[in-house]
Amino acid sequence: MSSPEIRCAAPHEAPALARLIAESFAPLPVTEWLVEDETERVDALTGQFEIIVEHAIKYGDVYVVGDEDRPTGVAVWFPPHQIPDMDDYDERLAAAAGPHTPRFVELDAAMHDAHPDGPPHAYLVFMAVRATDRNHGIGAALLDAHHGKLDASGTPAYLEASGLRSRELYLRHRYVDQGSAYGPAGINEFRPMWRDAA
């Protein structure tokens, strides 16, 4: 099987990539807790994720598999160095999440508290593959695309696996568990993981 073609995201792709991530994450218990109404969930998640994807396209690295009108996979990375804060994040989050905003804020705080202080590391914020395109090596290829750069520069990486299946993928790419699983409201499905540079 040939390796999927990977490209860097353009700024105008942020909405479509955010929706892909939202659709991929919508069935998770933590996102069901964030937005209980499934008719509102994907839109609310997309609104928050778009803010983050836009920021990563500008200051980090966003890798894409698939066409602009139908991406099949995406990996969103923040760099090891300090980047500017997201403009108007609180206002944009409130506009996207509406009455669900307090739960988004609670989750943001939990993730911030669990994030390691150092050493400097790249952060895989999101990785998502469209459900109909899984099990074809897209996730592995997206990881490899950035790991090569991180290894060349001696940069470690950090992420939170959002389930046992994704954790297995990350273990195969030399990540190791770092601390206990955590999450809001007792939904301890985020598994911190760390990868030293090769």
Brief overview:
By secondary structure, the chain is α+β, with helices and mostly antiparallel strands.
CA-CA gap between termini: 26 Å
Major beta-sheet overview: 7 strands, mixed
| Strands ordered across the widest β-sheet | 1-2-3-4-5-7-6
Indicate how many domains the architecture comprises: 1
Query: What is the string of helix and strand elements?
Result: EHHHEEHHEHEHEE
Calculate Rg over CA atoms: 16 Å
Ranges where pLDDT stays below 50 over 5 or more residues in a row are: none
Instruction: Tell me the structural class.
Output: alpha+beta
Q: What's the CATH class, please?
A: Alpha Beta
Give the name of the CATH architecture: 3-Layer(aba) Sandwich
CATH level 3 topology: Aminopeptidase
**Strand element count:** 7
* Percent of residues in β-strands: 15-25%
Q: Would you identify the CATH H-level superfamily?
A: Gcn5-related N-acetyltransferase (GNAT)
Query: How many DSSP H or I helices?
Result: 7
Mean pLDDT: 95
Question: In one word, what is the shape?
Answer: globular
Helicity, in percent?
Answer: 40-55%
Task: Please provide a written account of the structure.
It contains seven helices and seven strands. The chain starts with 6 loop residues before the first strand and ends with a strand. The relative contact order is 0.16. A seven-stranded mixed beta sheet has the order 1-2-3-4-5-7-6, sandwiched between helices. The longest helix is centred in the first third of the chain and has 22 residues, at 38-59. It has a single domain, classed as Gcn5-related N-acetyltransferase (GNAT) (Aminopeptidase, 3-Layer(aba) Sandwich). The mean pLDDT is 95. It has 198 residues and is of the alpha+beta class. It has helices at residues 14-25, 29-34, 38-59, 89-97, 101-114, 138-153, 164-172, and strands at 7-8, 61-66, 71-78, 122-129, 157-161, 176-177, 191-195. α1 crosses α3.
